[in-house]
Amino acid sequence: MKNLVRICILIILVCLLSFTLNAQESYAKLEQNKNIQAKDLIHKLNKTKDTLILQSDTKINYLYSINKDYGRDYDFYVDANYYELPLNKLKKGKHVLVAVQSPKRIVFVVKILKDIPKSNTLSDSKIEVVALEPEESSSGSTH
């Protein structure tokens, strides 16, 4: 009888755990390049899966996206060893991305599963600056 109760509790815990893992919001899925020549480029998604992170010891020159007509949808000039691409710049669907590290080209796929909300960053919103005039001192003296 004790074993039956333990098995039931274990089954309930496994069901709850799988439900909470599936409930996490996932905006994108990354299909990494497993080629041995691509091992120097770290390409991953951040924890919230809304930003692509590229990191390498050698300089990443460009990052671009190829569409089904072999044209470039997005073209980003990186020229750095570390780059973060907010995935809200990409439309929903499959994107074949190419990271250029001269002379190599590393190809991987990012699938945008659902629309990613635009973040409210300082560059996205207008900030109104208001200048304040200096207050007069309470002692009554003016300059």
Please summarize what this structure is.
The protein is mainly beta.
Top keywords for this entry?
about 140 residues; mainly beta; six-stranded antiparallel beta sheet; about 40% strand; elongated
User: What does the average pLDDT come to?
Assistant: 78
Number of helices: 1
Give me the Rg, rounded.
25 Å
Helix content: 10-25%
Task: Describe the fold and architecture.
It is a single chain. β5 (93-101) and β6 (104-112) form a beta hairpin. The relative contact order is 0.17. The termini are far apart. The chain has one helix spanning 2-22; strands spanning 28-31, 41-45, 51-66, 72-86, 93-101, 104-112. By secondary structure, the protein is mostly beta strands. It is elongated, with a radius of gyration of 25 Å.
